[in-house]
Amino acid sequence: MLRDRDTTANGTLDERVYYLHNWRSDIVALISHAGSQIEQVRYEPYGTPFGIPAGDIDADGKVTQDDVDQAAAWYSGSAYDVRADLDMNGSVNLSDITYIAGNKVLNHETGRGVLSLEHIGSRKGYAGYENLAELEGSGVKWDVRNRVLLSEIGSWNRRDPLGYVDGVSLYEYVMGRPILGYDTYGTHRAFAQDSTPMAPWLAPPSIPIVDAPGGDIPDDTTPSMVLLIAACEQACQDNRGAGAMGYCYKGKPVVCICRTRGRELPGEQGDPFRACQREYELDQWNYGSQTDCAPGYTGLPDKQPHVTHENVRVSLCRKALSLRKYEACVGRISCPEGNEGYECREGRCLLRERNRCWAESLEKVYCQNNTPPVIPPSREEETRRNISIQTDCMKGSGQRCKNEASEG
């Protein structure tokens, strides 16, 4: 993105500035047509900017004598640091030092809450939004088409015109996850659509494990990985209470691990509960318990438009086999002795009992004698019945598992 401007009001566009942005469209730097540094910007999670003028080597928001001295030291010592290479020619030279000293004399100062130097006048910033510096009142404000984002309080200035599309709060910005979220129209939060190829390990037949909140985030920090984690975080947020779930990301099957049941064990064992959850979700893909992901689809497998009521019924029958393996996996977990293992033993018991009961119920309702069960009238009714089965399975097991954990 670039901006052409008439700085002398003579009708001629005599200045061209290029805007550099990150993957989320935050404007993070401006450079001249010749490639020289003009200014940089960093942002707090909800968009409050911190301007850094060219030559501000210590990044405190203003060019001082300390910055000039540091650049001179690099020059005299034949050292290189890009912070002092303002013309970006690969070396720190006298022209760079002269430019930095000139900025000091001109009192070029920005810092927290200031997006751009006055004579530069950039208005594009956080997530590509338009800065509204002319509005009265304290704090940074961003024009996001249908609403104004107030960075100081991390909230919108008015109710969402679309209603409760982003949850129970009509003022909350991107459901409280500003690091990965954005909202182009000021009406509905979203996560950036990745245009880069998926990392090779995401391609079938490999099914990746993605740990969302409370889990082990993979080391891969490519844009694809960042956006995949964001998608799993959203899925976990929308399905509170889920330990793990199969998920479709751009038509590819993934497994989102949302949280850990029980206490994590030390050493190479890691978290055995998480390991069982992973095995369970992988089994569901392998046994066909999950509906295949349609090309390009992102979301829960059974929410796809092409999924029929019959697809859901068959998948629930097949799910019983995965649950039996999950039950056996949990039963093999070894917990620490004494009080240190109480939480682990209770979680082990609850998972084991739930999976055993759930598997038995699914087999009885959906698979017994290989005859079709009574079909509820809708997919919604099917979902309600499935939830009811899980709820019934947990009744009465709470106290029993507390006693078992105490005896261990």
Overview of the molecule:
By secondary structure, the protein is of the alpha+beta class. The chain is built from 8 helices and 15 strands. The chain has helices at about 65-75, 95-105, 225-240, 270-285, 310-330, 340-365, 380-395, 395-405, and strands at about 1-5, 15-20, 25-30, 35-45, 50-55, 110, 130, 140-145, 145-150, 155, 180, 190, 210, 245-250, 250-255. It has a 6-stranded antiparallel β-sheet, with no helix packed on it. Strands 7-8-9-10 form a 4-stranded antiparallel β-sheet, with no helix packed on it. The protein has a 3-stranded mixed β-sheet with strand order 13-15-14, with helices on both faces. A hairpin with a 4-residue loop joins β9 (about 145-150) and β10 (about 155). α1 (about 65-75) runs antiparallel to α2 (about 95-105), α4 packs antiparallel against α5 and α5 (about 310-330) packs antiparallel against α6 (about 340-365). The longest helix has 26 residues, at about 340-365. The chain is elongated and about 85 Å long. The N and C termini lie far apart (about 65 Å).
How is the topology of this model organized?
Blueprint lengths: L1 E4 L9 E7 L5 E6 L4 E7 L5 E5 L11 H12 L17 H12 L5 E2 L17 E2 L9 E4 L2 E4 L4 E2 L24 E2 L7 E2 L17 E3 L11 H16 L5 E6 L2 E6 L14 H15 L22 H23 L10 H26 L11 H16 L2 H11 L1
Parallel strand pairs: 13-15
Antiparallel strand pairs: 1-2, 2-3, 3-4, 4-5, 5-6, 7-8, 8-9, 9-10, 11-12, 14-15
